[in-house]
Amino acid sequence: MPQLNPTPWFLIMLTSWLIFTLIIQPKLLPFISTNTPSNKPTTTTHTPSWNWPWT
């Protein structure tokens, strides 16, 4: 079964992870997130339960 033979796929996986960690990830990390977290307290809203007509 060719799926169980790791010889051709291990090098592809290793190079793709190296490309991601060494090239793509440092380029993406300096961006500032546009959705910054706020310090406002969260308010929880209480929704009333449904009155089911068949119960």
UniProtKB/TrEMBL annotation:
Molecular functions (GO terms): proton transmembrane transporter activity
Any Gene Ontology CC annotation: proton-transporting ATP synthase complex
Cellular location(s): Mitochondrion membrane
Transport in keyword set: yes
One of the GO BP terms on file: proton motive force-driven ATP synthesis
Keywords (A to Z) from UniProt: ATP synthesis, CF(0), Hydrogen ion transport, Ion transport, Membrane, Mitochondrion, Transmembrane, Transmembrane helix, Transport
Membrane topology category: Single-pass membrane protein
Keyword Amino-acid biosynthesis: no
Membrane-spanning parts: 6-24
Family statement drawn from the similarity comment of this UniProt entry: Belongs to the ATPase protein 8 family.
Protein name: ATP synthase complex subunit 8
Organism: Haliaeetus albicilla (White-tailed sea-eagle)
